[in-house]
Amino acid sequence: MHEHNAAVYPGSYDPLTNGHIDIIERGLKIFGKIVVAVLKNPAKTYLFDLDERQEMLRSVFGGEKRIEVDHFEGLLVDYLKRRKIATVVRGLRAISDFEIEFQMALMNRKIEPRIETIFFVPSESYSFLSSKLVKEIYMLGGEVGSMVPGIVDAKLKEKFRRR
Ligand code: PNS
User: Fold this and answer.
1) Ligand 1 centre from 76 Cα, in Å?
2) Which residue minimizes the CA distance to atom 8 of ligand 1?
3) In whole angstroms, how far apart are CA 162 and each of 14, 38, 150, 158?
4) pLDDT (tens place) for every residue of the chain, 163 residues total
5) Domain map of the chain by residue range?
6) How many angstroms is it from 70 CA to the middle of ligand 1?
7) At residue 97, what are phi and psi to the nearest 5 degrees?
8) 20 tagged catalytic
9) Which architecture does CATH list for 6-162?
10) The pTM is what?
11) Could you tell me if 31 and 3 are in contact, meaning their C-beta atoms sit under 8 angstroms apart?
């Protein structure tokens, strides 16, 4: 695993939120390149399919040379090995994230000891934000325009045919 200056930021991105963008921007201060890796888990039902999730990311980060949008299926560590990248980036919003993130980081390390996980703390204004809540608020008729990029807001509108 060689590419020292790159990190993978894996996630479901269903959909991308301003919280993810905050983490990516922080990641770019430390890493030369961030590979945003969208998970395709056949066992999971997503609101947006893999193409839509990637498309929204690409439309937000399209012009950024240091950001690559990719996807993976299966184990994250196998994807990292394929990409020859040894660093995982994740965001830690609150103590409630800690337990699951700690477990994932240690499990990934157990499977592949050469992998390190780096956590970034998002702006406190995003500490409450999650893709799950964005979807719930939107489905129940709330506004999410301040929580997601414009393209995601538009895609949500399209999906639910709301004006
Ligand atoms: O955005 P999410 O849903 O919090 O991201 C979770 C993700 C994609 C990082 C995690 O589910 C993952 O890495 N899945 C890939 C399968 C895998 O490697 N599982 C073992 C992790 S210990």
Assistant:
1) 7
2) 11
3) 19, 26, 15, 7
4) 567 799 999 999 999 999 999 999 999 999 999 999 999 999 999 999 999 999 999 999 998 999 999 999 999 999 999 999 999 999 999 888 999 999 999 999 999 999 999 999 999 999 999 999 999 999 999 999 999 999 999 999 998 876 5
5) 6-162
6) 15
7) -75, -25
8) yes
9) 3-Layer(aba) Sandwich (3.40)
10) 0.96
11) no
